[in-house]
Design a protein that fits this description.
Blueprint (H helix, E strand, L loop, with lengths): L1 H6 L18 H12 L8 E5 L6 E5 L30
Antiparallel strand pairs: 1-2
Amino acid sequence: MNRGIDEATGTYIAVVESDDCIQENMLFTLFTAVEESQAEVVKADYYEFIGEENQRQLTYMQTVPDKRAYGRLLDSTQTTALFYAVQMTWE
């Protein structure tokens, strides 16, 4: 991952690791959100896979506990919501 980031030449970086699954339009949705808002970072909720493949369970995980923060451009100097967001390398 670090080598890929070092070699990247594009405007944006998305990290999808070998054990990750993404929806078909996820990157387009995030790209659209960052282009429209001019945000430095965009985040999305996700599902956590638990258990073996034949008994796998999905658990919905919210990135930010307060849904009022969703769909808005947040400024860390104006709101503490960003400090409670889930921090993952793939965001």
